[in-house]
Predict the structure.
Amino acid sequence: MARNIERRRTLADAGLSILAGEGARGLTHRAVDRKAGVPTGTATNYFRTRDALISALVDRIGDRLSPTSDDLARRSSQPPGPDLFADYMRDIVRR
């Protein structure tokens, strides 16, 4: 299995774009290849099955919604409460 992290992210982002625009029926390995602008078969090399592709999309959603270490450090001194919760939520929406 290929291990290039940046390529996996690119493929997953392409898959998310397809899923958002066309729904689950439009999400195929070939569609991901086309959207990502990579040679046919690339998505299959990274994600052997449709389940693996969908799992990668779920992981990518988590990556994109997770706060960075800088975000966490900036908020670590703030007391827990509604203001901190609202700040986290605004940050998630921004990402």
